[in-house]
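Anyone opening a protein record will find just a pair of labelled lines. A complete record is shown below as an example.
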Amino acid sequence: MDRKQGLKIIRKQAVGQYHSTTIRLLEYLHTATFKGNPNGEVEVRIKRNTSHILKAIKVKECQLYRIVSQLEHDGVLADVERENRTLHCRLNLKPLAELPVYDPDEERKKRNTDRAAKAREERTQIRSHATNLVATCIAASVVSGMVSPAIFA
């Protein structure tokens, strides 16, 4: 897998699964994989200072380690070691490649369809409630003698 394919997987498929900070970390680690790697091998062990990572993805240390733990649990990061404010790991994009391609337009259409169906149902309930209320008022008026039943004949 070359650099472009890896970034495409991260940007198209991982976006539907992970938050933006996690995506930024994945992009940073993917770029670090190819830095100084003339062969373009993805299975290279990455060694980065955590302060550089924190500046690059704009998070605090606690959040960085939560993101790393999540990615390690999901199998995206392998052989993770943390020592002396340095992160050693290998990036494994195979679990990300298995994710479906995220399409924000399709997601928005689905959300709007659900919202429209819910709004239609609420309008129907309001109309039926109003109709029942009017019928009850008319019936009460007829029973109390305020309105003659001959009007409705």
About this structure: Residues 10 and 54 are 19 Å apart (CA to CA).
